[in-house]
C-alpha cells in the first residue's frame, strides 16, 4: 500500500497502521472485490467517459461500497469515503491513477506476456492457451473483457506476477483512441484472422487488417509475432509484422513452413483429431470442439508453447477436455420426456462471416454421424453497417450447399437470404416465440441442430437459451408434412358472449395457431371503413392486373364487379382475388403497409399475423395468428363488421361469426363441413344453450 501511494503521489487517510499491508489485486467493479488484499478503484460516474470514450449509466464508485458484503484492503478514490475503517488513497484523477498503476506493473512484470487479436477466434485461442498452461500460474482476461478499459485494469492485475499473462485485445483497444499494444508490450502477439466484422464503423476488411495489425507495434524487443497465413490480407499482415520484428511465424491448414508442416484434421462424432509436425516432431491430439477455426486456434496455441519452450507432448492430453466460452460451438445433448435424443450446437456467442462459414461447415461435417433431421437455425451477423446486405447475400450459397433438411431463420437481414435460397426447405420468422414453438415440430430422434448468430441485436440467442427447457417438455412429434401438422395442432375455437364478457365455449386455446396470416380479415375491416365514407362503389367493374398467382381462371382478362369479387373471395381460396382486393383498398403498397402496421399496433397483435400481402401460406414466410386475436379484433370492430360471417384461409379455414351479442372465432379447420356446423351453431344460439345447461 505504501508503494502504491509512492506511485500515485496521493494521500493516505483512514487506518494508517495498514499501510504495509499487501495488495495483490485490483477491481473497479465493487461486486467483484473478493478479498481483503484487493484494492477497489472507485471511479466517479463522470470519469467513465474518460476511460471508455462514451457515457456510462454507472453511479459513482463510492456509492457501491458495502463493507457488510466484502471489505477491500484499500480504496483508491477522488472523494473520501465516509467510513475510514478501510484505508484510502485520495487522488486528483482516478483514471490517471489507474493508468500509473498499470504502467508500473507492466514495467516490473518480467514473465512472458501473450497478446491475441483477430476478427474471431481470439477468445477461444486465449482460453485454449490458458487451459494448456494450467500447470502454471497464469493470468488472463475475465470472460471476454477485451476492451481498452478492461486492459488498463488487467495490467494492474499483473501485481500477481503470474508465470504467464494472456491478454485478449479487441479492436476497441487498437483504434484511433490509442494503440493499447504500445502499453501492453506483448512478448508474443497472435493474429488469428481477418474477416467481415466491425463494418458498421470500418470501411472494409483491409481497414480491419490495418487496425488489427497495430498489435504488432508494441511487440517487445526480440518478441515473436504469429500470423494465420490462411486469412484475408495475410501478405499485408506479414509486411506490417516485419516492420516490428524478424521473429515471425506463419501457420496454415494448407501450406508448410520450416517450423510447421503437414497439418491434417479429421472429424468424428463430437470431436476432431489433429495431426501436425512442428520443428520436425509429429504430434497428434483430439479436440472435443468442432470447426476448422478451432483447429487453427489449436495450431496457434501449440506454436506459442513452442516459443515458450514448453514440452508439447506434456499438454496434448489437455486438448481432450478443453471448453471455450459458453455458446462458442458448444455441444449439448438433450433428451425430452419421450426419450427422444437430440444434439445441439450453440454458436450464438458472436458472428463474423468467417465464423458463420466455420459453423455451417462444422455442421455439415458432423451431419453424417446423425440419423435424424439436420436443422439449421440462423440469425443475423450484426455490426455490418452499409455492408449488411452484401455480407448476408454471401450466406446464400453456404446454406444452399449445406446438409440441412430444414432451415429456420430470424432477424430482418435473414429475410432477404431466405427469399434467395433455392432447393431447400427454408422459413423466415418475424417473431421469436413462434420460432421457438415451431422448432419442436422439425425434430426427431438423433436430430442435429445448429444455432448460429451474433450475440447482440439478434433474437436468436434468446431462442437458443430457452430451447433446452422447452424441448425437454415438448410433446410434439415430427411428421414429414411439417406445416400441415403445425396447422392441425393449432385447430381451435372460442365463443364469447360480448355483452357479459364471458367465454361461452372453447377448445384447444393452449395450442391455438395458424400457418396463414390475417390479411384478408384486415382487408374486410378496411373495406367497411371505406364503404362508410362512400369511397367504394359496389357496381364498379375492375379489370384484374398481372399477379404472380394468375392462372386460367383469374388473369389479366378477368373483369368483375366489386360485389362479385367479395362473393368469390368467401367461396374461393385464390390469392389473385386477395391481390385485387388489396389493390382496391389501398392506393399504394406503402399505404397498405402503413395501415397494416398501425392495425397490428393499435390492436396489440403479434407481428406475425401479417407477413405477406395475401396472408396465404408460404413456406418461406411464417405467419400465424391465434383464436384470441380473432376474438379481440371482433370485439374492437363489432359494430363495423355487423352480423355476419367472415371465412378466409388458404390451406385451412379460419374465421369469425357474429350474431347478436355472440362472437364465434375459429382457426385451422381443415373440413368445410366443420365450418358450416360451427356457423350454424352460433346462428342458432346452441353454444349459449350448452353454457346454460352446464
UniProtKB/TrEMBL annotation:
Residues 337-454 form the Mur ligase C-terminal domain. Transmembrane segments: none annotated. It comes from the Bacteria. Residues 116-304 form the Mur ligase central domain. It holds the Pfam family Mur_ligase_C. SUPFAM superfamilies: MurD-like peptide ligases, catalytic domain, MurD-like peptide ligases, peptide-binding domain. Keywords: ATP-binding, Ligase, Nucleotide-binding. The keyword Membrane does not apply. This is UDP-N-acetylmuramyl pentapeptide synthase. It comes from Jeotgalicoccus coquinae.
Amino acid at each position: 500500500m505504501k508503494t502504491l501511494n509512492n506511485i500515485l503521489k496521493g494521500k493516505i487517510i483512514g487506518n494508517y497502521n495498514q499501510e504495509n499491508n499487501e495488495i495483490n489485486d485490483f477491481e473497479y467493479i465493487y461486486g467483484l472485490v473478493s478479498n481483503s488484499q484487493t484494492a477497489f478503484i472507485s471511479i466517479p460516474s463522470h470519469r467513465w467517459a474518460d476511460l471508455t470514450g462514451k457515457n456510462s449509466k454507472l453511479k459513482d464508485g463510492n456509492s457501491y461500497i458495502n463493507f457488510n458484503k466484502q471489505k477491500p484492503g484499500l480504496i483508491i478514490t477522488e472523494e473520501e469515503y465516509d467510513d475510514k475503517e478501510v484505508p484510502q488513497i485520495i487522488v486528483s484523477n482516478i483514471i490517471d491513477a489507474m493508468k500509473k498503476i498499470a504502467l508500473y506493473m507492466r514495467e516490473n512484470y518480467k514473465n512472458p506476456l501473450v497478446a491475441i487479436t483477430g476478427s474471431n477466434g481470439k477468445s477461444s485461442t486465449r482460453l485454449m492457451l490458458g487451459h494448456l498452461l494450467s500447470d502454471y500460474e497464469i493470468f488472463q482476461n475475465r470472460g471476454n473483457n477485451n476492451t481498452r478499459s478492461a486492459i488498463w485494469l488487467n495490467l494492474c492485475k499483473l501485481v500477481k506476477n503470474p508465470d504467464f499473462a494472456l491478454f485478449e485485445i479487441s479492436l476497441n483497444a487498437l483504434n484511433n483512441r490509442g494503440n493499447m499494444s504500445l502499453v501492453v508490450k506483448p512478448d508474443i502477439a497472435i493474429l488469428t484472422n481477418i474477416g467481415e466484422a466491425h463494418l458498421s464503423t470500418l470501411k472494409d476488411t483491409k481497414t480491419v487488417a490495418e487496425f488489427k495489425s497495430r498489435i504488432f507495434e508494441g511487440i517487445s524487443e526480440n518478441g515473436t509475432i504469429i500470423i494465420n497465413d490462411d486469412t484475408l490480407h495475410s501478405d499485408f499482415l506479414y509486411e506490417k509484422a516485419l516492420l516490428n520484428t524478424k521473429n515471425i511465424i506463419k501457420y496454415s491448414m494448407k501450406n508448410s513452413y520450416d517450423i510447421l508442416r503437414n497439418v491434417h484434421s479429421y472429424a468424428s462424432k463430437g470431436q476432431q483429431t489433429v495431426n501436425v509436425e512442428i520443428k520436425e516432431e509429429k504430434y497428434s491430439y483430439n479436440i472435443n470442439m468442432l470447426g476448422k477455426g478451432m483447429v487453427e486456434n489449436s495450431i496457434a496455441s501449440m506454436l506459442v508453447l513452442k516459443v515458450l519452450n514448453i514440452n508439447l507432448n506434456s499438454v496434448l492430453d489437455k486438448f481432450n477436455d478443453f471448453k471455450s466460452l459458453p455458446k462458442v460451438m458448444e455441444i449439448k445433448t438433450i433428451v425430452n420426456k419421450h426419450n427422444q435424443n437430440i444434439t445441439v450446437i450453440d454458436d450464438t456467442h458472436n458472428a463474423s462471416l468467417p465464423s458463420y462459414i466455420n459453423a455451417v461447415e462444422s455442421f455439415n461435417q458432423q451431419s453424417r454421424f446423425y440419423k435424424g433431421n439436420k436443422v439449421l437455425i440462423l440469425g443475423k451477423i450484426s455490426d455490418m453497417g452499409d455492408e449488411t446486405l452484401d455480407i448476408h447475400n454471401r450466406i446464400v450459397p453456404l446454406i444452399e450447399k449445406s446438409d440441412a433438411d430444414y432451415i429456420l431463420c430470424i432477424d430482418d437481414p435473414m429475410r432477404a437470404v431466405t427469399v434467395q435460397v433455392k432447393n431447400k426447405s427454408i422459413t423466415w420468422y418475424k417473431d421469436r416465440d413462434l420460432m421457438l414453438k415451431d422448432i419442436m415440430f422439425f425434430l426427431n430422434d438423433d436430430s442435429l441442430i445448429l444455432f448460429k448468430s451474433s450475440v447482440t441485436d439478434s433474437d436468436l440467442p434468446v431462442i437458443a437459451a430457452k430451447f433446452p427447457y422447452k424441448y425437454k417438455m415438448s410433446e410434439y412429434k415430427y411428421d414429414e408434412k411439417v406445416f400441415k401438422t403445425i396447422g392441425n395442432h393449432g385447430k381451435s375455437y372460442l365463443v364469447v358472449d360480448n355483452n357479459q364478457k364471458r367465454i361461452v365455449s372453447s377448445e384447444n386455446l393452449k395450442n391455438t395457431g395458424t400457418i396463414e396470416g390475417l390479411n384478408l380479415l384486415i382487408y374486410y375491416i378496411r373495406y367497411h371503413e371505406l364503404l362508410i365514407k362512400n369511397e367504394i362503389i359496389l357496381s364498379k367493374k375492375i379489370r384484374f392486373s398481372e399477379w404472380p398467382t394468375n392462372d386460367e381462371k383469374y388473369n389479366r382478362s378477368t373483369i368483375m364487379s366489386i360485389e362479385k369479387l367479395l362473393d368469390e373471395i368467401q367461396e374461393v381460396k385464390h390469392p389473385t382475388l386477395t391481390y385485387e382486393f388489396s389493390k382496391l383498398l389501398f392506393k399504394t403498397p406503402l399505404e397498405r403497409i402503413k395501415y397494416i402496421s398501425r392495425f397490428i399496433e393499435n390492436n396489440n397483435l403479434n407481428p406475425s399475423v401479417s407477413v405477406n400481402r395475401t396472408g396465404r401460406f408460404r413456406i418461406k414466410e411464417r405467419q400465424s395468428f391465434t383464436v384470441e386475436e380473432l376474438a379481440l379484433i371482433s370485439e374492437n370492430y363489432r359494430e363495423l363488421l355487423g352480423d355476419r360471417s367472415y371465412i378466409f384461409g388458404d390451406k385451412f379455414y379460419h374465421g369469425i361469426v357474429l350474431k347478436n351479442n355472440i362472437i364465434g372465432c375459429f382457426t385451422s379447420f381443415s373440413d368445410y363441413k366443420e365450418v358450416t356446423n360451427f356457423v350454424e351453431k352460433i346462428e342458432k344460439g346452441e353454444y349459449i344453450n350448452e353454457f346454460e345447461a352446464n
